[in-house]
Amino acid sequence: MRFVIAVALAVCLPMAGAACAEEPAAAQEAVDLAWKFVAGQTLVYEVTMSGSGTQSMGEEAMPVEISTKLDLAQRVVKVHPDGSADVEMSSDVMNVEMSIEQAGQARDVKIRVTKEEVTVETSMGTRRLSPEEAGMGAMPPVIAPLRMTMGTRGEVLACSSAGMGTLSQVLQGMDCSRMMRPAETAFPGRAVAPGESWEYTRKIPLPGTESEVQAAVTATLNRVEDMNGTRTAVISHRGAVDVSDIAGEVLGAEGSPPASVTFEKMAQATQGAIEFALEEGRLTKATYETDMSMEMRVPVREAPGVFRKIGSQMKMRVEMKLKEVRG
Q1: Cα–Cα distances in Å, from 274 out to 61, 104, 118, 132, 173?
Q2: Tens digits of per-residue pLDDT, 151-209?
Q3: Which of 19, 64, 68, 317 could join 272 in a cystine, given CB atoms 3.0 to 4.6 angstroms apart?
């Protein structure tokens, strides 16, 4: 359960998206793309995530479906002279629904997470646990806020480790700053005309390893248009990564030593679009779809020299929409 929730958080936290290409509009003047932070202001985003695929262990493949909903609040704590800002991201409640088919039988799970309680509903009944009992401790953004410093180009400059211990453990040792790096929206730092593209790379950490893989991203300013009185840039992104044969370690169950693991294959392709309010300097909408596949080889502790294959294939869709501006 903790892993499912952590993956949902890792997917929902990014304030960015990637996009399918669109035909650019007729020639328009170049525009500056930059975040404009206002001290004390809070942007509330409605976030939904849905995904389906299979999880496999050995020869057994288990179909999985998951959906997550939450309102994500981004509060600007402080604005620095260079325009960067310290922000907090938090949510009062998160709802997760998951279905796993194993041995021909579907297991449905509903999870509701708040600061005070974690409710787990299955066919066997309902359990109400404290965050500590559920193994979540101060895991952000629901149990505790996620604090970071963002630059005007959308880059994550720093990320506080406060409250990240549990999430780091669930995500196999991945620290906050490494987790957030692939989620950055990299504006080029110069004026861009509609139809113009720019490229950048993102380093994606592999859980439990010191390795990072390069993901090449192409972004295009498709057009600038008036959306309900707001001058908005529509930006597309497309990126992919494909690696193989990388060794590392993952955390075992509590109290047990780490286990070696080999990522035999990991591939990820993402596309989507964001809408960015130019005068206000803020994200108003993001939609992206991701295809992910991973194959790992891990040792069987009870049988030295024997290895088990674990695989995952998932298609995910994330939608974010600005719901409310406070302050």
Answers
A1: 35, 40, 32, 36, 30
A2: 999 888 887 755 544 444 444 444 444 444 444 568 998 999 999 999 988 777 665 55
A3: 19
Instruction: Please give the distance of CA 81 from its chain centroid, rounded to a whole number.
Output: 29
Q: Could you report how far apart the first and last alpha carbons of the chain are, in Å?
A: 36
As beta bridge partners, residue 221 has: 235
Q: Is 140 exposed, middle or buried (0-12, 13-18, 19+ CB in 10 A)?
A: buried
For 271-286, what is each residue's pLDDT tens digit?
Answer: 999 999 999 999 999 9
The Cα–Cα gap between 67 and 65 comes to 7
Looking at domain 2-326, which CATH architecture does it have?
A: Roll (2.30)
pTM of the model: 0.81
> Residue 311, SS3?
strand
How many CB atoms lie under 10 A from the CB of residue 70? 22
Domain boundaries, the chain: 2-326
